[in-house]
From TrEMBL:
Protein name: CPXM1 carboxypeptidase
Residues forming the catalytic site: 178
SMART domains: Zn_pept
GO molecular function, one term: zinc ion binding
Name of the encoding gene: Cpxm1
Cofactor: Zn(2+)
Alphabetical UniProt keywords: Carboxypeptidase, Hydrolase, Metal-binding, Metalloprotease, Protease, Zinc
Organism annotation: Platysteira castanea
Boundaries of every Peptidase M14 domain copy: 1-194
Length: 194
């Protein structure tokens, strides 16, 4: 359809209807419930959180691609990671899910918030499109006034994100880089994106 005609959801789901961006196990809720019940860290870990049993069942709604990425993460203990998205010019960092389950937006920092903010800032200030004083706002949010970084949950809540899963299950510090206002750039624009 072309970049100007495709909506933000185009291509987001697999053939089976699974949103790969939100298909990881929600470890946040388990951690926060354990914290609320004073079970952390003696009875429930606050890092290397195991995957819940329900998520490992053969009939669980987990895409084969998600299972493959999890196996890869477990095989290679990454400590730093970034996943690339399109549709905005901003770097987000965990947590991506709000702690107050009914809130659509809420600042929800990790204990390592300072490190995440630093990582996001390093990238955002080095990215020419983000750092440009002449850059335009992509959509409704003016991320330039925030230094082009934001806590994921402060922007919009996402349960089952790879960022939160990586952080809680494998202790990997992962950020999301939104590379461009255009979610579907033309082929001729891809070299600049890369």
């Amino acid at each position: 359809q072309g970049s100007e005609l495709a909506g933000w959801a185009m291509g987001r789901w697999t053939y089976e209807g699974i949103d790969l961006n939100h298909n990881f196990a929600d470890l946040n809720t388990a951690l926060w419930d354990a914290e609320d019940n004073d079970l952390v860290p003696h009875q429930f870990p606050n890092h290397f959180i195991p995957i819940p049993e329900y998520y490992t069942f053969a009939n669980a709604t987990v895409a084969p691609e998600t299972r493959a990425v999890i196996a890869w993460m477990q095989r290679y203990p990454f400590v730093l990671s970034a996943n690339l998205h399109g549709g905005e010019l901003v770097v987000t960092y965990p947590f991506d899910m709000t702690r107050t389950y009914w809130k659509a937006q809420e600042l929800t920092p990790t204990p390592d918030d300072g490190v995440f903010r630093w990582l996001a800032t390093v990238y955002a200030t080095a990215n020419l499109a983000m750092a440009s004083g002449e850059r335009r706002r992509c959509h409704y949010d003016d991320f330039a006034r925030l230094g082009n970084i934001i806590n994921g949950a402060k922007w919009h809540t996402v349960a089952g994100s790879m960022n939160d899963f990586s952080y809680l299950h494998t202790n990997c510090f992962e950020i999301t880089v939104e590379l461009s206002c255009d979610k579907f750039p033309h082929a001729s624009e891809l070299p600049e994106e890369w």
